[in-house]
Every structure is written in structure tokens, then in C-alpha cells.
Amino acid sequence: MVIVGDDPASRVYVNNKKKACAECGIYSEEYALPEETTQEELLSLIDTLNKKSDISGILVQLPVPKHIDETTIINAIDPKKDVDAFHPINVGKIMVGNFDFVPCTPAGVMELIKESGIEISGKECVVVGRSNIVGKPQAMLLLHQNGTVTICHSRTKDLKEHTKKADILVVAVGIPNFVTGDMIKEGAVVIDVGINRLENKKLCGDVEFESAEKVAGAITPVPGGVGPMTIAMLMKNTVKAAELNKTHK
Ligand code: NDP
Mutual orientation of helices 104-115 and 135-144 as an angle, nearest 10°? Predict the structure, then answer.
């Protein structure tokens, strides 16, 4: 795990990931670099970790400071050690449906749906948000499971018209309480990916839980829903990476 700078949210995420590794018996190393680290220094560390045979997975906690180009960093990680699945090779593999790693958050959402016994095939699936980390891969994973997928974003006209049709609604926007009960179809499965910290320091999702739970057939809470699943999927990808790197040696 590599963390650059002292963003408090990133620090919490890295601590949780470290704790999860310890609980699973996965050996981990943390590299906490100062804010003023140069791109070259970060690239040099990634190169070292790419070559280090006792390290199977590399995770650079995002966001990196503004003077470092995120894409250059993602592209520098060995795709076989890319446990976040952000490298273009892994993104492309997800697109064609033949992948080793799945980005942790969308993978966690799929696991929640599967473990809850919810059928995706033929369902209207609406994903609100189209980031490379959540929305886009989420849509592809639902499509691979034969969902009829709609992706909504900030330019979508009449968002409610789309969300109201969803049998499965995944919301990853980053705006507190953005989706309200009146935007949800009766009995829908609602998955709230959002993690927002309010002024009173409380965490809340992108879905207004109180109004949404009255309409939804199933709904994930924040905190305690998708967040822990994301970390669990990171552990799964790391074990997969260890297996992959063993066979590639
Ligand atoms: P981004 O900011 O990268 O993407 C947000 C998306 O929401 C964009 O596609 C944007 O559209 C869309 N959007 C913004 N405003 C609107 C609007 N008014 N109507 C419809 N769509 C809108 O965020 P992320 O995908 O990285 O994260 C989303 C949320 O999920 C955040 O709260 C984040 O903290 C959380 N998160 C949680 C994780 C977990 O482990 N549970 C992991 C990762 C993220 P456009 O593309 O047009 O700008």
C-alpha cells in the first residue's frame, strides 16, 4: 500500500485495508510518502514493488496530490499486481468479460446482489455515475450478468424517469442524500455506493435512506454496506494476484 500525503479519508482507508490484511493473514507493507513526493520518486517506488517477488499486489491510494499524474501512476503498476484493477489492461479485460481482477467496489456490489439471492438476468439495472472506478465497471459487470443496463450521469435529462424504472439501482454520485424515495420503484434493490462526510462528521450515502427504505425491496446502509465489501474484494484480488504471480514466475 502506497499513500502520498496526509488526506484524512485516505489515511482511514489505508488503515482499514492494513487491518483487513492482518485479519486475513496477508503480509502487507505500507509506504507513507510525504505530500511533496515527486512523480519520479513515486514511479521509482512502483518500479521497485513491481520487481519485488514477495509482493503480489500494489495499491496506490487515490487521489494522489495534484502535481502527480494519476493516469501515469496507474499505468506504471504491473497489471498482474494491479489489485485495484485500474490499469487499462485490466479495464479492457473487464470490457470483454475475461478478467483476473475486478475493481473492488463494483465487485463488492455484485457479491452483495449474488449473496442476497437476487437475479440480475433480464432486470432493468440503472447505474447513476460513470466514473472509471465505480460507474463504468459496475455497468459492465451487470451487463455480463445479462442485466439491461442504463448509465446515468450529470448530463442525463430527467434522472428520475430512469431511476424509477430500475429493478436494481446502483448510486455512485458523491452527493449526500441525492436519490430520494420518490425516485425509486416499489420493491427495487437499491445499492448505495456513496460515502459522504457531513458537517456534523457523520457519514451518509448518496441515497436518502429514510425515504428510500420505505419503497425499496432491499437497500444497503451507509456506513456498513458497500464499504466493507470493497475491502473484502481487495483481499480477494490480492489472493488472486498471489496465485497469478506464482504461476507467472
Ligand atoms: P466521481 O466524482 O468520480 O463520479 C461521480 C459521478 O456522478 C460522475 O459520473 C458524475 O457525472 C455523476 N454525477 C454528478 N452529479 C450528478 C447529477 N446531478 N446527476 C447524475 N449524475 C451525477 O465519484 P466516484 O465514482 O469515485 O464515487 C462516487 C461516490 O462513491 C463517492 O461518494 C465516493 O466517496 C463513493 N465511493 C465509495 C466507495 C466504497 O468503497 N463504498 C469506493 C469508491 C467511491 P459526470 O461524469 O457527468 O460528471
Answer: 40
- In order of 85, 96, 132, 239, the CA distances from 88 in angstroms are 8, 12, 10, 21
Tell me the CATH architecture of domain 104-227: 3-Layer(aba) Sandwich (3.40)
Q: Which pLDDT score, from 0 to 100, does residue 70 have? A: 97
Q: Give the pLDDT of residue 248.
A: 55
Rounded to a whole number of angstroms, the distance between the first and last alpha carbons of the chain is 22
Distance from the alpha carbon of residue 153 to the mean position of ligand 1, in angstroms: 9
Give the residue ranges of DSSP H helices in 5-52.
8-24, 39-51
Q: How far is the CA of 195 from the centre of ligand 1 (A)?
A: 10
Half-sphere exposure of residue 178, counting CA atoms within 13 Å on the CB side? 24
Domain ranges of the chain: 2-84, 104-227
- Asked if domains 2-84 and 104-227 share a fold, the reply is yes
Please tell me the number of Cα atoms within 13 Å of 156 on its side-chain side. Answer: 17
What would be the CATH architecture of the domain defined by 2-84? 3-Layer(aba) Sandwich (3.40)
Low-confidence ranges of the chain (pLDDT < 70): 247-249
Most ligand 1 atoms within 8 A of CB, residue of 128, 156, 160, 193 to mutate:
193
- List active site positions: 17, 61, 84
